[in-house]
Each structure stands twice: as C-alpha cells, then as structure tokens.
Amino acid sequence: MFAKTLAACGLFTLALVANAQQVLIPAPPQLASTAYILLDADTGKVIVEENADEQLPPASLTKMMTSYIVTEELDNGRLAETDLVNISVAAWKMGGSKMFVREGTEVPVIDLLRGVIVQSGNDSSVALAEHIAGGEDAFADVMNQTASLLGMTNSHFVNSTGWPAEGHLTTARDLSLLARAIINDHPDYYDLYKEKYFSYNGINQPNRNRLLFRDDSVDGLKTGHTEAAGYCLVASAKRGDMRLISVVMGTKSEDSRAAETQKLLAYGFRYFENQTLYRAGEALESARVWYGTSDQLELTVGDDVVETIPRGSRGNIEVALKLPDTLKAPIAKGEQVGTLTLTLNGETLAEVPAVAQKAVPEAGFFARIIDAIKLFITGLLS
C-alpha cells in the first residue's frame, strides 16, 4: 500500500489509494421524530444522528433489553429453552400488549421469548423477569447492570416491559448499542426478530414491525408505543455484506415510524459502503530496525481494518504512519511498534496499531556494536 520503504522513523502522511476524486453526498434526511440514529452494525460507524443522546421513554423498546438478558442466560447455559416458567398473578394481570398466558400454567422459556419479541407481550416479559431474577425489581437491577456493561451510559430501567414509570428512560444511541449487541452477541437467536407471526393459546398475532412485511432486507428488531414515548421503532436491515441499524423515537403514528425508518435505511445503503482498507497480516511497509538480526521490519495490522465510508471516497483517505524515532530489536511478532491514523476530509476514521509482521531477534554483540556506531554517526549528521 505504501509508496516506499521507511528508511528512518517518524511521522509520514501517505495516500491510501491514488486518483482521489470528489464525492458528492446529499444531506441526510430530516425526520419527523424526536430523536434518531443510523449506524453500521459491524463497524459501529454512525452515519446520521439527531438528538441521539436525549433521554426519552422507550415504551416497549425496553423489551429488547429483556430479550437480550434472556438470550444471554440461554447462551451461558444458565437457562434452557425447554425450562418451564410458572405464570404468576402479576404476569397474568399485565395490561397492554399480551401473549395471553394463563395464571398458574407453566410455559417454556422459548415460547415466552417469542411472546416478548414477536407479540411484545407484557405478560411474557414479567414472567421471564420473575423467573430469572425472582421479581421485576431485581430484574431491573440486572437490566441496569447489563446496560452499564454495554456502554449504555444514559439509560435507566425500572421494569421489564417499558410500562410508563418515572425515571424509566433511554436514548436513541443507547438503543443502537443494545441492538448491535443483540445482533452480534447472540446470532443464534436473532432470527426470532424477523418472525412475522406467533401463535399461542389459540391466538395468532402478527409482529408489529410493519417493515418485516414491506422490505425483505429488514429482519428486526422491535416497536414501541405509549402516549409519552410516541411511536418508536428499532430496525435492522442487511443488503449484500452491509447491515445497518436505525432507531427512530417519538413519531406520531405506526405509518410514520415505518416511513421515517425507511428514509434512514435508504439513505445509508445508497450513499455509504463498507471497505476493507487493510487485511490482517498483509505487508504494509518496512521500517529500519537497529540491533537486530535483520535491519528491516515488515509492518502489518493485527486485525482487518474495515470502515464505513461514503461510496466512492476510498481514494480520498489519507494515512499517517507514526513510528518511534528509533526502532530497536528484539521485536516480537505482533508487537505494536507504531500507529496508523486514517482520515477522510479532516475526520479521523480510525487509529490502528501498526504491528510487526515477523519477529526480529536481537543480533550478536559485534553486530550491535556496528549498529551503535551507525546510529551515533546518523545522530551527528542529523
């Protein structure tokens, strides 16, 4: 990728790809909603946001946290899909959207999980909360601890359902982090979010996410509505190798939350793309190393560098490689020796460790003496 071997160390600014061109990207859509955000599920790159850190009531979007905790318990073996959950009076009496479980019956965990995700059941959410934590108050503590672990710094949960309660708040950004965790942490259960119908107790109910019926690329996640929250929707769609997550909060109707979400997704897929800028292990460049069995150190990156960028803008990315003034052996394979900083139009895309592609052992005594003399002379000349 780089143009020439680095004979000495320091800071170098190099073009990632030649033939840079001007890329025209229209302004993002302005939505009729209180807050929203659009980001890439893999890179985490935020493409569009508005009031993304404003604390708002999440309504049934809360159930995303409930379902995440359930799948966390399932994946860690602390819960089994076939475990039977006793339905309490408190769960049975819940109002609002329901799975219609019956008090005193026992329902498998996997059915209740579908009731939460597909039917947005308040009753199934309370039943699972009681089963996992012994009560909804204790489960709320688990929700808040989980939120902290996920970096949801502006969220506070009071219950498992999103039933209106003082202090029960989150943000569009925090919900996007939660959606990303649902998709990436528990992929075996993510297919539940695209199920269009679920039937229980003789009652067949459709998923409230209308986009599942309109757009084949949409495969999740959750709707929500209360008078205070308005109509909300967290959605995810995958087209080709790119998956986007959108969060729309505080719209005025079911149609509006679907339409505003479609605007965000269409903008993201049309004007942005993911590009693998570097692959782990590929040789980037070589730098001078002293006191080693070799005087050249091949540089690479430890992990693939994938970034979400405006379509056609790869040629405009600049890379600054920063290395110490003097690299000295021994250097282990994979050891970080510098930093690659990628920028596009003045915005930092990423800072990536530059690591040793191969180890450079320390040379023998006489070779080190010769290098010491060379370094001394180089210092005098510089």
Detail the topology: elements first, then pairings.
Layout: E1 11-15, E2 35-40, E3 46-50, H1 63-75, E4 84-86, H2 89-92, E5 106-108, H3 109-117, H4 122-133, H5 136-149, H6 172-185, H7 187-190, E6 197-200, E7 203-206, H8 211-214, E8 218-226, E9 230-239, E10 242-251, H9 254-271, E11 272-278, E12 285-288, E13 296-300, E14 305-310, E15 318-322, E16 336-344, E17 347-356, H10 365-381
Antiparallel strand pairs: 1-15, 2-3, 2-10, 4-5, 6-7, 8-9, 9-10, 11-14, 12-13, 13-17, 15-16, 16-17
Helix pairs in contact: 1-4, 1-6, 3-4, 4-5
Question: Which labels suit this protein?
Answer:
382 residues, alpha+beta, 10 helices, elongated
Can you characterise this structure?
The chain is α+β, with helices and mostly antiparallel strands. It has ten helices and 17 strands. The chain has helices spanning 63-75, 89-92, 109-117, 122-133, 136-149, 172-185, 187-190, 211-214, 254-271, 365-381; strands at residues 11-15, 35-40, 46-50, 84-86, 106-108, 197-200, 203-206, 218-226, 230-239, 242-251, 272-278, 285-288, 296-300, 305-310, 318-322, 336-344, 347-356. The strands form five sheets. Strands 1-15-16-17-13-12 form a six-stranded antiparallel sheet, with no helix packed on it. It has a five-stranded antiparallel sheet with strand order 3-2-10-9-8, with helices on both faces. The protein has a two-stranded antiparallel sheet with strand order 4-5. Helix 1 packs parallel to helix 6 (172-185), helix 3 crosses helix 4 (122-133) and helix 4 packs across helix 5 (136-149).
